[in-house]
Amino acid sequence: LSGEIVHSWKDEPCHRWEHAELLPDGDLVVVGARLDEDAVADPIQSGRYVMRLSWDGRVVWRREINAHHDVSVMPDGKLLTLVFRRRRIPAIDPDNDVADDLMTMLSADGKVVESVSLYDLLASSKVPFSFQKAGGGGSGKHRLIDLFHTNTIRRASLPGLLGRSPIYGRNTVLLTSRHQDELMIIDWPSRQLLWHWGRGVLSGPHEASLLENGNILVFDNGLSRGWSRVLELNPLAPDQLVQFAPGSSRFFNRVMGSCQRLRNGNTLIVNSEAGAAFELTPPGMPAWIYEGTQQTADGHRVKIIRMRRIETAVVENILARR
User: Fold this and answer.
1) I want to staple 168 with a disulfide (CB 3.0 to 4.6 A). Which of 65, 158, 226, 261 is the partner?
2) pLDDT for 55-109, tens place per residue?
């Protein structure tokens, strides 16, 4: 909290890491993207990977599986991530390929254990789901309909609240879809959509997470409004919204953005495009502000895709074992 670097990892050459998770043993798992000729030619098909690094920076394993945006750690040590797959879906667009998201479970050593198409799951859902039209990128054979742009996949299980609703079941996962303006909770074993919400309220959202009280915290980019906010909502009564935001166009992220509820009750919010972050108390007062010092070649502050508070005791326990 005093701003000193405790530990760092790097990999070269590298374009970016989209998310990183610190494991209990001190290893780091990252979702990354390289920048080479193949990746530039078709970024949906190549250049993406999941990698596990040891505490001292050694590459434990690296899997090039077109992973993107997120990786989260399950209680049994497995890893949940998102994988792009280019496919033609006539019901969506008969003339152009669609970027489907494969919800993919990896073993602790990086092997694919299970993989489920998000499109197939939603198209066959017992809970009605209508697909919102999404724009396409590229041209010619590289044109692609980015239907979901799912940016987060997280565990949604809260067994203590299972009696309240099946959405808190032992094997449920929560997804955030930027281009569908939706949050979704899916039962992993049965491949069933249990709940979805957001369209008409959220606009280009990022990084929904389930809180211990059963509520959901989400970064609402506000593309249709021109300003961003963070919302806390009860999924069983989503009209009951609590808003965290400066409430002006000065806080506006067209892309990226993240949020985290801290153990002290504060909320850490990342102003990604400004390369900054701030922590708000429950009444909405700033407790801590961070502004990055790294700059791009043209003098702009380097974007921060995500920032995550890690409890001091977690790092101290890792260091004590070394």
Assistant:
1) 158
2) 999 999 999 999 999 999 999 999 999 999 999 999 999 999 999 999 999 999 9
**Residue given tokens 């997280």 in the structure block:** 154
Helix (H) or strand (E) holding 14: none
Amino acid at 282: P
User: Mapped to the 3 state alphabet, what secondary structure does 169-223 carry?
Assistant: CCCEEEEEECCCCEEEEEECCCCEEEEEECECCECCCEEEEECCCCCEEEEECCC
Q: Are strands 59-63 and 67-73 parallel, antiparallel or unpaired?
A: unpaired
Q: Which residue has the tokens 């380097």?
A: 302
41: part of which helix (H) or strand (E)?
helix 37-41
- Tokens, residue 105: 């479970």
> How many CA atoms does the CB half-sphere of 303 hold within 13 Å?
13
Q: Cβ contacts of residue 239 below 8 Å, gap of 6+?
A: none
User: Is 272 in a helix, a strand, or coil?
Assistant: helix
Residue 261: what residue type? R
Chain centroid offset of residue 200 CA: 21
Using one digit for the tens of pLDDT, what is the confidence trace for 162-174?
A: 999 999 999 999 9
**pLDDT average, residue stretch 179-198:** 97
Q: Answer for the pair 81, 67: CB distance below 8 angstroms, yes or no.
A: yes
The radius of gyration of the chain from alpha carbons, rounded to an integer in Å, stands at 19
Task: Write the DSSP symbol of residue 253.
Answer: -
The Cβ-side half-sphere exposure at 242, using a 13 Å CA radius, reads: 11
Edge-to-edge strands of the sheet including 28-33?
A: 16-22, 28-33, 48-53, 59-63
Task: List 107's β-bridge partners, or say none.
Answer: none
Residue that is written with structure tokens 């920048």 in the block:
35
Q: What gap in Å lies between CA 82 and CA 101, rounded to an integer?
A: 6
